[in-house]
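Supplementary notes for students who missed Thursday's class. We covered one full example, reproduced here. Read the sequence, then the structure, then the short commentary at the end.
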Amino acid sequence: MDAPCVRVARERGEETRRALADADLVAENVEIDAADGDLYIPVVDPDAVPDEYELVHRDLPERSTPEMPADILGYDPSLERLGDIVIVDEDDPERAREIADAVVESALPVETVLNRASKIKGETRVRDWDVLAGDSAETVHREYGCEFAVDLAEMYFSPRLATERHRVAEQIDPDERVFDMFAGVGPYAVPAAERGATVVGTDVNERAIDYFRKNAERNGVADRVTAIAGDVREAAPEYENWADRIVMNLPHSADEFLDTAVALASDDCLLHFYDIQHEDDPYGPGEAAIREAAEPEYEVTVENAHTVRSYAPHELNVCLDVRLVANE
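Structure (token representation):
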């Protein structure tokens, strides 16, 4: 079939395929082809392919569709992929087991199937899991060219925020100083460092910080990253007036740390403030809290406000990108 493709020299083929796959651009229904020293990698959305790649059209063989869990079950289950882990969210244990068995039987490259057994809880933001297949909640997740080792039994990580993290990373300049106040395993901090920024990240979960350090090394940015285990409020005095950009991804309680964020902010700082609010006024409470903490020391400008995702019925997970400029 005629398909849009990225044409690339064979020696750069795997590197290019991985980059396109991390951006969810590789077409799964068409085979990759090779000819005359080039690879032809089919893509699902040619308009989304970065300009650095050469786009062509080529007649490619269709790929036989592997058997997926939906083919086995007769319905499309709700699944979430994280590396070689599949996550289900089922209250009915029998249905959860049925889905897990289908996942294992299918062509998905999966080692572990987990079912959520509790909500996120505690200061370290972990949850309980029922292990339906496999024996480990540890995996490596790939996202926009970065790799993150994570153990879901000991730390929080959501692949659903990949697009949002990439949105923030794309704004970062090489000479920036970035402070991630709730860094986890580094999904905001590592891409920031990869773009050349100097990054400091804190988290109260010591195991998450261990993985953050390993992930900085895994991605070749350890020399630009400082990972601190502990409450950001204790680390803040050393970095007063330091940050050009601050990430506050703790949406249930980030407002409690706004005084610390203001102390960290340089004279011109962009704050990424994450919040969960009712759909009737998703941005107002966050903006009001930021203004109360930052004014009159800083001039406060909301540069962008957008919904990241739906969180619960009538509740939205939102982000406000807020510029803080010190008043003279």
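Commentary. The mean pLDDT is 93. The radius of gyration is 22 Å. If anything here is unclear, bring it to office hours.
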